[in-house]
Design goal:
single chain; 435 residues; alpha+beta; Naphthalene 1,2-dioxygenase Alpha Subunit, Chain A, domain 1; eight-stranded antiparallel β-sheet; four-stranded antiparallel β-sheet; 9 helices; 17% helix; elongated
């Protein structure tokens, strides 16, 4: 369990907080490219790390992320006119480019040079793989962007999605690095004998617990969860976490699965999940399991909201829950992502982790918390650069399942399989089975 002060230290991300300052050292996914569909399209309210910002795409197609309040008299730039390579405040006409320069001040005399003395806070942005990234940190020259395999190959095999959840970012992230909940929350109503014999799905349902082994990595941590799969092999589920909020979950075949999630805090109580996948395991754009979404609104938390949420109890079907029917397992909640969201959201805005009772299968959760606390403390006290900031290659990681001999060292045996950007054409993703 965590002490309450440790819990607050790593959960809260607003401007000036220790964790917020640490996250600002990294490039952060801010918007989907599709949220700024074309040059001079409508400005967008963006809540990011507790800061109210306005996103826009200028006449040249470049995305910008600028402070909400116009530096003149504080009117919101959300109401601005996006025109002629800048965002013009409609109050007095002051116009700002994507770098925060005032490029027009029409209510000042012609001879005035005041516009050269005023700047808006604007954060550097880069667009890659369907995501607009932002750097909110202190460096004049931002660090390199992370080498995330699921975000670096802009082709027909790549898919990016974003979903807003009403929960603290760390509660959601910890669900990603907890493998034993899967056999209950997601597949508790299924039987091993109904799965493809010898597949990962088969063995996962035969044994609901696992033995965890955890290692530190250059940019985070990884676990191997071990289950015997007969007498002559072991089924390992391997997952990874990278600073500050990236997870690479274990479903799929290790070596073939490309991509992961970013659990990006909007504020302390709302999180945007950016899912990035590419290659043979990427879901189709027409995937019928896509999360049903509400229409977007223009308020600070009106973006990318699922239809299922806490206010409607995630549309739990008690009849289906009792009868274990309708594809909802024993939860009565439709969809794996929404089953997870119901659990992490039900903990409350920020759960008091001093009330927990952690077991042996919570080892990865414990390790990630310890690494976060250590990194935040070192950054806060001594200005130590957090792991991964200056090493984009540390994010070249993969996750998934694998069969190994009983006497194999999983760390050594999977070293190449855990490396991104390496092809393994002999591996068959179907080995995973349907789960």
């Amino acid at each position: 369990m965590l002490k309450q002060e440790e819990n607050e230290l790593i959960c809260r991300v607003g401007p000036g907080t220790p964790m917020g300052n640490l996250m600002r050292e990294y490039w952060v996914p801010a918007m989907l490219s599709s949220e700024l569909p074309e040059p001079d399209s409508d400005p967008l309210r963006v809540m990011l790390l507790g800061e109210q910002l306005i996103g826009f795409r200028d006449s040249n197609g470049k995305p910008g992320l600028i402070q909400n309040h116009c530096p003149h008299r504080g009117a919101s730039l959300f109401f601005g006119r996006n025109e002629e390579a800048g965002l013009r405040c409609v109050y007095h006409g002051w116009k700002w480019d994507v770098d925060g320069n005032c490029i027009d001040m029409p209510n000042e005399p012609v001879e005035s040079d005041f516009k050269s003395k005023v700047r808006a806070v604007a954060y550097p942005t880069r667009e890659r793989g369907g995501i607009v990234w932002a750097y909110l940190g202190p460096r004049t020259e931002p660090p390199p962007m992370p080498n995330l395999e699921g975000n670096m190959q802009a082709n027909s095999d790549q898919l990016v999605r974003a979903t807003q959840l009403q929960s603290n970012w760390l509660q959601i992230l910890e669900g990603d690095i907890d493998t034993t909940h899967v056999g209950f929350l997601h597949y508790g109503g299924l039987k091993a004998e109904d799965q493809i014999p010898g597949s990962f799905s088969d063995w996962q349902l035969r044994e609901k617990t696992a033995h965890f082994e955890i290692i530190d990595t250059e940019a985070g941590a990884a676990y191997g969860a071990r289950r015997m799969a007969g007498e002559d092999q072991v089924y390992w589920r391997v997952a990874q976490w990278c600073f500050p909020f990236y997870t690479f979950t274990p479903p799929g075949v290790l070596g073939t699965k490309k991509g992961g999630n970013a659990r990006v805090p909007m504020d302390d109580y709302h999180t945007l999940t950016f899912s990035m996948t590419v290659g043979r395991n990427a879901p189709s754009q027409a995937n019928p399991l896509r999360i049903p979404m509400q229409p977007n609104t223009t308020d600070w938390f009106g973006r990318l909201r699922p239809e299922q949420e806490g206010s409607n109890d995630f549309r739990i079907d008690r009849v289906a829950q009792r009868q274990n029917s309708g594809g909802t397992g024993f939860t009565g909640i439709s969809g794996i992502a929404m089953q997870d969201a119901a659990m992490t959201g039900s903990m409350g805005p920020i759960f008091d982790r001093s009330q927990e009772h952690l077991g042996t299968t919570d080892g990865m959760v414990i390790r990630v918390r310890r690494r976060l606390i250590a990194a935040v403390t070192a950054h806060m006290r001594d200005g130590v650069t957090p792991p991964g900031v200056d090493d984009p290659t540390a994010y070249r990681v993969r996750s998934g399942g694998v069969f190994l001999p009983p006497d194999a060292d999983w760390v050594e045996a999977t070293r190449e399989l855990r490396q991104a950007f390496i092809e393994h054409p002999h591996l068959d993703p179907a080995l995973n089975g349907p789960l």
